[in-house]
Every structure is written in C-alpha cells, then in structure tokens.
Write a structure and sequence with these properties.
The protein is an alpha+beta fold and 381 residues long. The chain folds into 3 domains: 114 residues, Butyryl-Coa Dehydrogenase, subunit A, domain 1, CATH 1.10.540; 106 residues, Butyryl-CoA Dehydrogenase, subunit A, domain 2; 151 residues, Butyryl-CoA Dehydrogenase, subunit A, domain 3, CATH 1.20.140. α3 packs antiparallel against α7. The protein is globular. The protein binds flavin-adenine dinucleotide (FAD). InterPro entries: Acyl-CoA_Oxase/DH_mid-dom, Acyl-CoA_Oxase/DH_mid-dom_sf, AcylCo_DH-like_C, AcylCo_DH/oxidase_C, AcylCoA_DH/ox_N, AcylCoA_DH/ox_N_sf, AcylCoA_DH/oxidase_NM_dom_sf. Belongs to the acyl-CoA dehydrogenase family.
Length: 381
C-alpha cells in the first residue's frame, strides 16, 4: 500500500521546483540576517504552497494533510526556517481558521492570507506557560458589548509581521484552566506591541514577543464558542504535530544530501571519505532515520485524512520520533563535514540549529511522551 497518491507526487514536484527556485537562494540570508522573506511568501501564495490545506476557492492548495507534509518536507530540504514559517502560517493559523472560523471570518481572512498579502500567526504560548497551555493568563474581559484583551504572548512565529492573530485568551477564572479559554481572530492594530526575538535556528521566521494592550474585538471575532477554545487549540496542535514532522523530514534530508556531497568529494588518507566504511555506515544510518521519520509522518497524516481513531496516538509518535531523528541526522551531517561542518559556510550547520526547535515547538519531546503515556493508559489500563 502506498501512503501517497500520484496527486501527492505532483504536489511534491511543484513544491520542490518552488523550493529550489525561490527558497534555496534566500535560505542563508534568512539564517544570517534574520531576514523575513516577504516577497517569497507572496510567490508561495500564488501556488497555494503557503496554505496547502485551505480550499482552492479561497486560494489555498486544496490538499489534505499528506499534501501539507509533502510541501513542508520539500521546503525543509532547502530551509528549515521557511518550512517552519509555512507550517505556522498554513497549518496553525490558516488550517485552523478554515476548520473552526465562521463563514464571515473565513471570507474576510483566508483569501488574503492564502495569497500571502496578509500574514497570520497562532498565538498561544506565554512567558508563564508553554507546555502548560491551560494556565495561560492573557485575559479577554467583557466590557459593554465588546471583548477587551490584555496579555503577553511569547515565541510567536510570524508574530512580528502578522496582520491577524489567532489568539487564545482566558474568559474565566484561572482555576477553570482549559474550560475557560476562548480563541479570537484579532486583526493587528496599534494595541499590539511586537518585539522580535533572536533565536538559535529557524531564523527569519518573525519570532516575536507580543503584548496586547486593551485590544477591543466583537462577538463576531470569537472563533467557535466562548470557553470552547481548548478543543480548537488541541485539534490544531494535533494536526500541527504531523505537519512539523514533515519539516523534520525535510531538514534531515537537506543535511543528508549535504553530507553525501561532502563525503563524495573530500579526500583524506589517499582516498575519498565515502570509501571509508564508517562514512558509509553513517550515511546508511542517516537514510534509515529519514525513511523512518518519513513513513511515520505520512502514516500519521494518512490516519488524519481517513479519519482514523488511531490518528491521535500516531501524531504524537510521529512528532516525537521525527524531531529526534532530525536532530540526530543533522548532528551526524555536521560531524561528517569535520571543521567545515562547524563553520557558517556549511549548510549542515544551519540544518543542525534549525532542527532543535522541532524537539521544543508544538509540544516538547517530554509533552509528546506524556500524551503517549496517557493514551497508553487509556488503551491498556
Ligand atoms: C522558535 C520558536 C517558535 C515558536 N512558535 C510558536 C508559535 O507560533 N505559537 C505559539 O503559541 N508558541 C510557539 N512557540 C512556543 C513553544 O510551543 C513552546 O516554547 C513550547 O511549547 C515549550 O514551552 P515553554 O517554552 O514554556 O517550556 P516549558 O513548558 O516551561 O518547559 C520547560 C521544560 O519542562 C519540560 N516539561 C514540560 N512538561 C513536562 C512534563 N509533564 N513532564 C516532564 N517535563 C516536562 C519541557 O519538556 C521542557 O524541557 C515557539 C517556540 C520557539 C522557540
């Protein structure tokens, strides 16, 4: 059984062509200068690459989750930063809006976001709370007929440049935890104070700290139901965990190809590095890891696309393993390149730094294990 169809392979081809033509040339600039690639985002918008799962009627790619994984894999192969930027943009923001927003909200936001004209960001994490997201402190209070939002978000990808925030806020007491959280679709205005954050990898993704000072929104800016935000957040992160596995496969693949090229050309002790058995074993380990991560990512996405009850477990298994394997493969690639691998001239070095966020963002490895154990308990008692 093939987990991907011919259509997925056509999507791969167009994503690969796009990645090589438009993303590869700016990947190092994103990394070195923390450059946010506004023009490349617009180019991606023209092809539906920015929002792979948003219906074509809104200008998105109209694909399923496997299509998104394939797109992110191809982008990640040339730039972990660009791939993560698209994952946060197209899945955490746009796919969530498509799944949960009202028709009015979708009609207003999705065409502009799919085209890359307006930027969307998913704002959940706070200085107090990332893994423990049910403890968030940003508040939305009822004043007159409106909602007034005050609070502080942290680490928000695309956050510095975003025109819209899908924002989680507390609409009841903190003790009520996840039962008193509402999601709002908040247009950017002067009430939002954004500060860029310098990060180790996936640079050029507009990571920001955000302060919301008396931001006023209406009832029609609530996404889903008041106090019903947790379901939206959890569903979005479960899907995001599969999507980010696609980023991991791509980053690992990019580093593997770098290492392979190096091993073929580097000469030492009178022969090429690739003729040494340890180098061959290293490349074999790397490829085995990539194939493992790829299969897990495609399988988890397939389970989502076919509405299987096994999806939840596999989304966490795929994220845990793909992230770990990406860090391991990129580390091996740096090692294979020796001193060059440690220099800023090596792309393996960039992939190594890019890979680390995959073990942290959208749930750390520890949180993945926590959820897997909870599901195990449910299944086996
Ligand atoms: C570059 C970048 C981009 C990001 N993009 C976004 C974004 O777009 N939107 C957004 O909302 N957030 C975003 N995040 C935030 C990210 O999701 C959080 O950083 C992550 O969930 C971890 O939360 P934390 O940083 O608060 O760490 P903490 O939750 O404080 O975790 C600290 C440590 O405790 C461990 N830990 C947590 N729970 C347990 C447990 N039950 N048992 C054992 N150990 C545990 C963690 O694994 C970790 O090692 C981004 C982060 C980064 C760095």
């Amino acid at each position: 059984m093939s987990l991907l169809t011919e259509e997925h392979e056509l999507i791969r081809k167009s994503a690969r062509d796009f990645a090589e033509k438009y993303v590869d040339p700016i990947a190092r600039r994103m990394d070195r200068e923390n450059y946010y690639p506004r023009e490349t985002i617009k180019e991606a918008g023209k092809l539906g690459i920015l929002t792979p799962t948003v219906p074509a009627e809104y200008g998105g790619g109209g694909g399923d989750l496997r299509a998104a994984v394939v797109v992110l894999e191809e982008l990640g192969r040339v730039s972990g930063g660009f791939s993560l930027l698209v994952e946060a943009y197209g899945i955490l923001f746009a796919d969530a809006v498509n799944n949960f927003a009202s028709k009015r909200q979708k009609d207003e936001v999705l065409p502009k976001v799919a085209a890359g004209d307006k930027i969307g960001a998913f704002a959940l994490s706070e200085p107090c709370c990332g893994s423990d997201a049910a403890a968030i402190q940003t508040k939305a209070e009822r004043r007159g007929g409106e909602w007034v939002i005050n609070g502080h978000k942290m680490w928000i990808t695309n956050g510095y440049y975003a025109d819209y925030y899908l924002l989680a806020a507390r609409t009841g007491p903190r003790e009520a935890r996840h039962k008193a959280i509402t999601v709002f679709l908040l247009p950017r205005s002067r009430c939002v104070e954004a500060t860029p954050i310098e990060v180790m990898g996936v640079r050029g993704t507009g990571t920001a700290e955000l302060k919301f000072n008396d931001c006023v929104v209406g009832d029609d800016d609530v996404v889903g139901e008041v106090n019903g935000g947790w379901k939206i957040i959890m569903h979005t992160l479960d899907v995001g965990r599969v999507a980010i596995s696609g980023v991991a496969v791509g980053v690992a693949r990019g580093a593997f190809e770098e290492a392979l090229g190096w091993a073929r050309s580097r000469e030492l002790f009178g022969k090429r590095l690739i003729e040494m058995q340890n180098a061959q074993f290293e490349l074999a380990e790397m490829l085995a890891s990539i194939e493992t991560a790829k299969t897990l990512a495609y399988y988890a996405a397939y389970l989502y696309d076919t509405k299987s009850p096994d999806f939840l477990l596999m989304s966490h298994v795929a994220k845990l393993q793909a992230a770990r394997l990406a860090v391991d493969v990129t580390r091996r690639a740096v090692q294979m390149e020796g001193g060059f691998g440690y220099s800023k001239d090596s792309k393996a070095e960039m992939f190594y730094r890019d890979s680390k966020i995959l073990e942290i963002g959208e749930g750390t490895n520890e949180v993945m294990k926590y959820v897997i154990y909870k599901l195990l308990e449910k299944k086996f008692g």
